[in-house]
Design brief:
By secondary structure, the protein is an alpha/beta fold. 28% of the residues lie in helices and 16% in strands. It is built from 11 helices and 16 strands. Strands 7-6-5-4-8-1-9-10-2-11 form a 10-stranded mixed sheet. A hairpin with a 2-residue loop joins strand 6 and strand 7. Helix 5 runs parallel beside helix 6. The longest helix has 29 residues. It is globular, with a radius of gyration of 21 Å.
């Protein structure tokens, strides 16, 4: 199946590359929110959110209504983007450790596709959240990025830039720097500076925002990690609903404001019409957001950390009006598809054997995506979708039935809210998909350190 997808992609690449002159290499900007659910922006149904610039993307771009992350948590999704494949092939089945500096995506073993962009003459920059390893060897500069400003761990205080250990986690390339400013505002400005400095060469700009991950802080709010008092990991659980919503809206607006800055700079440099802008999120909204900001995950069931749609279905928009005319795309897409899509868009042949497929035929020609089974796994749970059928197989946590396995079968065409379990009505379909899930798990974990384990029993941090 992977070879068939590669052959289809190669054919489209040959046709597409004929029309792409070397002197017209396009730019790519990938903007990714953190913990933003499906309805995290107005154009996807967000309530009370002012996202006029993201709405512009949606009005003029391709709006992907069936876009999923590869995982319901941060690191695995980011690995799938960098490698174009299931993160389990890199030995990861949950997030990278926030305390073990030697746990991360090794560039010598698992090089990111950014290196191919750099080798093709692209200037590359990342401004925001990395979360692919704490040790210096995992630094983005070792994965093909020319410039990095941001943080390495899972989240930081948006004001003091301190991580959950109460330590400054704010990097300029390979050095820790104490810099004042609201984190999102700084990413936005560094992104604009990068565009301005790259005007004479093609560039790939990656802006993985820290918003709207906890701690929930709006511009002007006080820090919750000050380096003196015990650090606060999650300040949202006990926050009044009205105050939570004020901060939540402001955090989303700060992302939207950054997009306006990017639009303005691209137009100023005269390169907007030669720049692909992609916007998405790394996973669904967390449980507190789903409770205190009604509809953060749309009408979908579940939230971050779960494999229900609320945990893995996210907003996604592709903006390149010159070739991608506005419409709503309902094809199944995953974040691992971004890597082959970007390489093909830039006219760079993908010689890797990856699980992802280029989305360009669907985005440009409106062709249906090739039929494929898709899979998700995260510590204690595993799922797959085949056509309209989705299976979720998980280990139950909690006082009652703790440790028991639970299997559910949904038909996503008639039940996108995942409210009606059909496993008893379709036992053969259930067993067929359980077998396919086990076969997939054994195949993607072979030789990774995860082989021989169960997806329902693997440790929190993978290996």
């Amino acid at each position: 199946m992977r070879n068939l997808k590669k052959e289809i992609g190669t054919l489209f690449f040959l046709v597409y590359s004929i029309f792409l002159k070397a002197s017209d290499k396009p730019n790519v900007i990938l903007i990714m929110a953190d913990d933003m659910g499906y309805a995290g922006i107005a154009s996807f149904g967000g309530i009370g959110l002012k996202t006029q610039n993201l709405d512009r993307l949606a009005t003029e771009g391709v709006v992907c209504k069936n876009f999923h992350t590869n995982a319901p948590v941060c690191s695995p999704t980011r690995v799938s983007i960098m490698l174009g494949s299931y993160q389990q092939r890199a030995g990861l089945n949950s997030i990278y450790s926030g305390t073990d500096p030697m746990h991360g995506l090794d560039p010598q073993v698992y090089p990111a596709f950014v290196k191919e962009l750099k080798n093709a003459g692209y200037r590359t920059g990342i401004f925001g959240k990395w979360h692919l390893g704490l040790d210096d060897k995992y630094n983005p500069l070792n994965q093909g990025f020319d410039e990095f400003v941001g943080f390495r761990i899972g989240n930081i205080d948006m004001v003091s830039h301190r991580n959950r250990l109460n330590e400054i986690d704010w990097w300029h390339n390979t050095e820790i720097v104490e810099e004042e400013g609201y984190a999102t505002h700084l990413y936005n400005q560094y992104a604009v500076d990068f565009i301005r400095e790259s005007k004479d060469q093609p560039f790939f700009l990656y802006v993985p925002h820290g918003a709207i991950h906890t701690p929930i802080q709006a511009p002007g709010d006080a820090p919750v990690r000050d380096g003196v008092n015990p650090p606060i990991y999650d300040n949202a659980r006990d926050m009044a609903e009205a105050e939570y919503q004020r901060r939540y809206r402001a955090m989303v607006k700060s992302i939207d404001d950054g997009l306006k800055m990017i639009f303005d700079e691209l137009e100023k440099q005269g390169i907007l019409d030669n720049t692909l802008i992609i916007f998405t999120s790394d996973n669904g909204a967390e449980a507190t957001a789903a409770q205190k900001y009604f509809g953060a995950n749309g009408f979908f069931n579940g939230y971050k950390n779960t494999l229900y749609e609320g945990g893995i279905r996210v907003p996604a928009i592709f903006y390149y009006p010159k070739q991608m005319k506005h419409y709503n795309n309902n094809e199944m897409m995953l974040t691992m598809d971004l890597m082959p899509t970007i390489l093909e868009f830039c006219g760079i042949e993908n010689n890797r054997d990856v699980d992802g497929v280029s989305l360009l035929p669907s985005l440009i020609e409106r062709e249906p995506m090739p039929k494929r089974d898709v899979f998700w796994a995260n510590m204690g749970s595993i799922a797959m979708q085949r056509g309209d059928w989705k299976l979720i197989w998980q280990t139950v946590r909690g006082r009652e039935h703790d440790g028991e396995e639970k299997v559910e079968l949904f038909n996503m065409m008639i039940d996108p809210k995942e409210q009606h379990d059909l496993k008893d009505s379709y036992p053969e379909k259930t067993e067929e998909m359980k077998e396919a899930v086990m076969d997939w798990w054994n195949e993607v974990t072979r030789g990774t350190g995860l082989e021989g384990t169960s997806a329902l029993r693997t440790p929190v941090f993978g290996h």
